[in-house]
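hey team, just a heads up i'm posting the complex here instead of the shared drive bc the drive is being weird again. everything in one block, sequence lines first with there labels, then the predicted structure for the whole assembly after. its two chains so it's a bit long, scroll down
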Amino acid sequence: MRRQRRSLKLLALIMGLSLVAGACGSDDDEGSDEGSDEAAQEEGVQGGELVDLGTFAQGPPEHIDPGINTTSDGWQVGGSLYDGLAETDFSDPENPETVPVVAESWEVNDDATEFVFTIREGLKFSDGEDVLPSSFVRGWERASDPEFAGDYSYLFTFIEGGAEKLDGEADTISGVEADDDAMTLTVTLAEPYANFPAVAGFQTFMPMPSAVDELDDQSEWERGIMIGNGPFIMAEPANDQEIVLEPNPEWDGTQYDESLELPEQPYLDTLRFVIGSDLDTAYNAFEAGEGDVTNFAPGRYQEAQDNYETTIDTPFLGAYYFMFNDRNEIVGGPENKLLRQAISQAIDREDINTDVYEGSRTTATGITPPGIPGMEEGLCDYCEYDPDAAEEAYQEWLAEGNELTEPLPIQFNADAGHEPVVQIIIDNLAAIGIEAESVSIPSEDYFGQLAEGACVFCRVGWLADYPTYDNFTFDIFGTEALDGNNYGYSNPEFDELVAEAKATTDIDEASELFRQAEQVLLNDDIGVVPINWYNGQQVYNGDKVAHLFEEPTGHVVWETVSLTG
Amino acid sequence: MPSYIIRRLLQIIPTVFVALSFLFFIFFLLPGEPARLIAGGAERNVDPGVLERIEERYGLDDPVLVQFGNYWQRTIQWDLGDSYLTRESVNEMLGEKAVASLRLAIWAIIIEIIVGIAVGLLSAIRRYSIGDRLTTILTAAASALPVFVLGFVLQYLFAVQPNKWDWPEWARLRTSGIGPDTWTFFFIPTGEQWRYLILPAITLASVTTALLARMTRGSMLEVLRADYMRTARSKGLGEREVVLKHGLRNAMLPVVTLIGIDFGTAIGAAVLTETTFNWPGLGSQIVTSVQQRDLPVLLGFTLSVVLAYALVNLIVDLSYAWFDPRIRLGKGDHG
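-- predicted structure starts here --
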């Protein structure tokens, strides 16, 4: 759920490399995608209007105020209006790193419990107010106010005193201190967390101008013209038809690090987000010339690529997988590891990608997707399709005196396009002698049921909140994982490795620890069955748009988007 | 007549109370915890602390009866509350969406009345002609065609293809949106507005127009056989006057009833058309609010739809007296 910046030239390189990775071992990757990337490198011009039909193709955003927004769609607007302390730089796709933005730099103590951010001088909000360390304190106190706090407010519990603030036991977050004279923001954490700058760049942590203090009800902020410190400003209050942005004259991209290669001002004169209600309608509107870029429904990837050759299928920071409930007597525990191995090796992930997703996703070789700092592909020992090994493992499990007395339930949320995936898995399992059945649960109730322990072998997807390794380990598989550890996976060794990694300030050392933890999950315990990594699904009008890239986080760096002459 | 109208208006109060109270309790029987869904729990795991705060903020941790009492206390003051999700005032949301729904419904009904009655009338007069048979086939097809299929076909034919053929801008209809706010007299599109309105209005009208045509045909055929029609002809009236003045007017009672129902449905339940054409109306918002467990929006919007239905039905009932002077409103049902 984050937006990153990178240079356009480097973006093209990433796109190319990502597509090579997405080719799944093909040596001959000279498809039309690369051609479209090259086309996208045409010289853009300053000015013009871009109409985006895709971001809100399925409905208006619940929120665009970064303090309470929870969706990546809403962040396309919020992220254009606000700049945070830090962002992830993907210019080296193999080694993405968190880099300072509004912060000039930061220092961390040895045990990763205290960070001192130095804020750049001379940055301003769109109303001319200086961006100061206290602007961040204002934003953070606002976003952690229990009367206002949004769904990501739990992130403030990472900071000392954050939990007390959210519980209403304290008026302020005790672990945050601003010194506007020294331009420093000192943050004391509740527990060691070396990746905190990546979280501090997340939308919930944006700075706010003093104008928010004039509101009695903070919910009103997003109903008017929000004042931010980002590259764009709102041309008018958001309505249920469109959200219109214009360049922020107070913003100057060259004030940030040169490595970000940002323009002095956004290229576009007007950025218009059209709010829709249906993906197919949005695509029809795109085909009718009513907009310049759109998303498309799964299953229309090939059509879009054939018609326009400008399809953007950037790998996303997201994983599609199935989870074993470790507390379940059929599949959980060390005594059933062979059964879990059989299931994982029996699944033909390539077939799923080809048949269901028209090859538009990347077959997963682990849980943590490319683009997460420290990630390495190929960590999973049991994620390759090997029906012989799967059958052998299943027979061995049977020989140990185990048996499946009833079909293995494969649970998934209904009406979300998972049925064909589950059907392929059922067929794959049948081929090695395992009888399985699909169990469709209404989406409204799905995660609620899982939270109560209903999962046996169930579908899950995870899109990164922020690009850190712990977001794919601690938050999903830790004993203290979100939502009370839905799946029961709990291994002290895993927890210790993740905790040690989180407290390690050396990025290489921390990454190694995270990878070890992931291997415990994937190989020692086989607690999860990765299927694929998500890719973006956008297409744009190549005759009009010169530069437009969707990042691994799903966000477009709108200030770098330009039109043809 | 005035006392009849007042009595009918008063009857709306228990109707609204029963409908919304029923909906209120049904809401809590739906699968899924409201707080979890409000926190985006249909798509992901949710932090337990966030769940607690949402329950506390919106009073979802109160007993249902307490919530029920609070709801009616607010509603009788026409305070429909704030959306759980967007935190926007439901009164304000309603103002925007109801207007959009009403405009679309008016045009759908205009199309329905003009086309439906004309086609039904002609079919009845020229019974078993080629036109009649063709009408029967077309109305059956229109009734059977799913709305979203018709919508996408129309979009393709009148918006996508004209763009590919590079037709002038004015000749390309729009696939989605309501366009610039340039309405005259509330519902008459001006400038470019018609390019946005025409396809959703036709789509919304399609099924009901077909039904109305069949209803008009059947009703007219029955009337055409009536004794008073022979009497009218024997008095020397022209066929045109016989059909329009004596025939059509008498055939209108069931037709008007259907139009009334259709109008209410077009205002509050045009979900597929609104979704297909991205027309921000009441129906699609109600469906979304059910999916997202946004109770204030669900109840507020349903309240407006119930009121719209009740008022339209009242107007329909009043119109009976005009179509058939023998009907005396408010005089009891003793014949």
